[in-house]
Amino acid sequence: MKQTNTEIRIELNSETAQQSRAANNRGMAIALLSLIFGLIMGLASCNEAEASTPLPESKIIYTATKKISPKLKGHNPEDRKYGDPDCDFNVISHTFNPSTGIGVITLDRPIRVIAVGAFAECDAMTSITIPDSVTKIKDGAFTYCGALVKVEIPESVTEIGQAAFIGCKSLIEVKLPSKIEVIADELFAKSSSLKHITIPEGVTTIGSNAFYDCKSLQEIEIPESVTSIGYNPLFGCDALTHIRGKYATDDQLALIVDEHLVAFANGRNIASYTIPSEVRVVDSGVMVGNKYIESITIHENVEVIECAALACLNLKRVTCYATTPPLTKSGNLTMSSRDINGREYYEYAPGLYSTLAIHYIYRWSGFGPISDYEKRDLIIYIPEGSMEEYSTASGDKLYDKFEGWSEYKGYFQEFAPECCED
Question: Is the dihedral of CA 224, 230, 232, 233 positive or negative?
Answer without folding.
Answer: negative
